Amino acid sequence: MEKRSRSFYVLTAFFALFILFLYGPTLTIGVLSFQGPQGGLTFPMNGVSLHWFRDLFEEQAVGDIWGAFRRSLALGLMVMVTTVVVSVMGGLAFRKRFAGSGALFYLIIASLVIPSILISLGVGLIFNQFGLRVHWATSGFGSQLTWTLPFGLLIMFAVFNRFDRSYEEAARDQGASAWQTIRFVVLPIIAPSLIGVALFGFTLSYDEFARTLLTSGSYNTLPLEIFGMTTNVTTPVIYALGTLTTLFSFLIIGAFIVTVWGLGKRRARLGSDAGKGL
Predict the structure, then answer these.
(1) Measuring CA to CA, how many Å separate 6 from each of 3, 17, 45?
(2) Where are the domains of the chain?
């Protein structure tokens, strides 16, 4: 019993250090973003204020922070929607074996192990070779899909491998068409997984740096803008930006979690009502 108790405390301490390692840098940036007007980029803090958050909303001498934020938000939404749609279609297609399905699966997953900077370079070169404009909404969009789609497809493959097809058979027995079965039976059942794929797609796009570096053209996304600021901004305003973007990420994650929780409650309520009806 004593050895087991000791192991428990050792493992608890290990995971506490691991959590500190994960979130320590973020917490440090968050604390330093509240420096006073005369504060610098390091400890010790010189006063406590919201000065740098106010400064962030004023016109900056360098960069285009809010323009970069709008571009990252728009690109994230584009990637999110495309990832969800293509992942569902791919998951449905792979439910039946077809010629070359194994090779196609490994080709899709292979993009995860190719260095991101090479993907960015390759997409940029292809656009240049065809005389197309390198732009965050076209080449940047395409390069980011090589990152988000494999994750989305892997999730949907796992979902459909566990999916009980008797629900679809029951719907067809009731006279539902193929589209009605997908719309009113399959999609509502896998809705929480779709929200997970959407969250993956948006957050991976919103934070992506390497695959956007050579494909964004003349306009930076937010990660590129923050990287540029590290070379010419010498005030805690960059920390304030980091704190706000982190809070925005947590807000997005929270919204998705609340949506999943709401879907679960709705499904439980519908099941309860159906049980009472019987």
Answers:
(1) 5, 17, 39
(2) 65-232
For the record, the structure tokens of 19 come out as 């959590």
Q: What are the average pLDDT values for consecutive 10-residue runs of the chain, which has 278 residues? A: 71 90 90 88 87 80 80 95 95 84 85 90 92 93 94 92 89 89 90 90 92 92 88 83 89 87 75 53
Local structure of 35: helix, strand or coil: strand
Give the CATH fold of the 65-232 domain: MetI-like fold (1.10.3720)
DSSP summary character for residue 47: -
Cα three-residue angle 234-237-240, rounded to 5 degrees:
140
Query: Apex CA 149: angle with CA 143 and CA 153, to 5°?
Result: 165
Chain position carrying tokens 């080449």: 139
Question: In degrees, to the nearest 5, what angle opens at C-alpha 13 toward C-alphas 7 and 16?
Answer: 140
- What's the Rg (C-alpha) of the chain? 24
